[in-house]
Amino acid sequence: MRIQYIQQNCTQCSLCVQHCPTGAIQFDYKNRKLIFDQVYLCVECVSCVYACPFKAMVLQDAYKFDVSKVNE
Length: 72
Ligand code: SF4
Ligand code: SF4
Fold this sequence. Notes:
Elements: E1 2-5, H1 15-19, E2 26-28, E3 33-35, H2 47-51, E4 57-60
Antiparallel strand pairs: 1-4, 2-3
The protein binds iron/sulfur cluster (2 copies).
């Protein structure tokens, strides 16, 4: 079970952050963007996947928080 962030689908609604029990995803409210600095805290509970209304957090087999394109 792996989770991939698809930035182009994200509306920065912050629902995933509110549902994450570990603080693995955080939200920069000033700049309105997700922060993945603490992503090592992820326990793959998939709450963020279910919380996201826009399919910006999805399950993937091959990726675990592929955030390589976040700042492109
Ligand atoms: S899978 Fe769970 S622990 Fe990991 S970022 Fe999503 S809500 Fe947080
Ligand atoms: S819930 Fe989905 S759309 Fe909202 S901030 Fe998280 S990833 Fe982006």
